[in-house]
């Protein structure tokens, strides 16, 4: 099954000292690379800061452009990955090892047509 | 315990087993349940007349398979399911018991707790949605929606149908035991409503805990939980008076306790402790055992109870455990020391009726009657269980 893992952007990305941040990003890159090589992660990206987001609001054929992300949440999305694994338990087991010191990771199955 | 006919006993054992096998084989909860219902209806037509077959499980599986094929052939859109039903072996493998997988799936941590409870009672115990709704005082439509949503999530989110292994087993077994314990508590002392107790629910959970013990014989905590449940059931006849009012442990007629059941449960706990992996359910059962083995309230080995509560608090540092420890401490060191301990928990337990009821008892022991009455009044407003309210109000009158 394929799942999208939606990763939150965590505080440490903005607040941790630079060498600390680089160390964590290094670990994440290694983690990602290993799983991609194993075929468990089939796609995904880290996203730029939510300040860079642009939202298009669609309403009955009309559209307006808004500066910023559309989710008015405390947590913002920092990246995503597509997992290709046997079941939810395998997805959870993988996501549990994501080397971020804090944050959230939402696992959602993708629709297959 | 009400006696069951042989057919009822077989139904209870086999219905859950059959549901579990079918969910594994066809991967569709709803269809599995419908086919089990069909097969049971057919059994009800034949068994009372022809007798229970030698291998009722195989008989039911065959009936379910045939019903499934009939049902699906009528509807072309179910071709894929039809293939899976057709692939069901005509003679089941005798040794496998799929119910353990089913229990772990129903209690998967990706399902919210209420859904875990409902689904376990529905799929494993075989209660109807109406019965579950009634037991938890939830409108039937709400319960039906909860169960449907959970089943849909199992399929859509790819929650596997497997027994967790290795390090994962401990956590996942904890989820299962929590679900069983919640059902036990609901049956043992309903959170609201007119009936103080729901003995049928406790008997269902006793059966479920027994099943878990049979399926995981090397795990001590299911044994601990089963012993705990049985120790409570052994005291059941003394819990309510002739007016259906709750009787406190201190005032219970201990001649009504089932001594044989107590001995058996204590032996069960011995089997758990022999495995040398202590856990909260074993400790709770050990505490219940100390009470059960005491000839009177005064003769209770309170030092041992306090010691066991300290062990429990180390495993599960919840304020309710500390409250119980303080109550036991009162029996050893007197009400003044107990009250000091209890008052330390006020920030955490102010909304809990038994916190105020406990304070009331201790304050009365210290002859602080005015404060005791205030505490009793707080307790009454905080519980929704009618029998408990009655007991508390009665004390206000005295």
Automatic annotation (TrEMBL), chain A:
Cited Pfam families: YCII (PF03795)
Biological classification of the source: Bacteria, Bacillati, Candidatus Dormiibacterota, Candidatus Dormibacteria, Candidatus Aeolococcales
Family: Belongs to the YciI family.
Organism encoding this protein: Candidatus Amunia macphersoniae
Span of domain YCII-related: 1-111
The protein's name in its UniProt record: YCII-related domain-containing protein
UniProtKB/TrEMBL annotation, chain B:
Domain RNA polymerase sigma-70 region, residue spans: 11-77
Example GO BP: DNA-templated transcription initiation
Pfam families in alphabetical order: DUF6596, Sigma70_r2, Sigma70_r4_2
Leader sequence residues: none
Domain DUF6596: 172-272
UniProt GO MF annotations: DNA binding; sigma factor activity
InterPro entries reported in the protein's UniProt record: DUF6596, RNA_pol_sigma70_r2, RNA_pol_sigma70_r4_t2, RNA_pol_sigma_r2, RNA_pol_sigma_r3/r4-like, WH-like_DNA-bd_sf
Domain RNA polymerase sigma factor 70 region 4 type span(s) in chain numbering: 103-154
Record protein name field: RNA polymerase sigma factor
Biological classification of the source: Bacteria, Bacillati, Candidatus Dormiibacterota, Candidatus Dormibacteria, Candidatus Aeolococcales
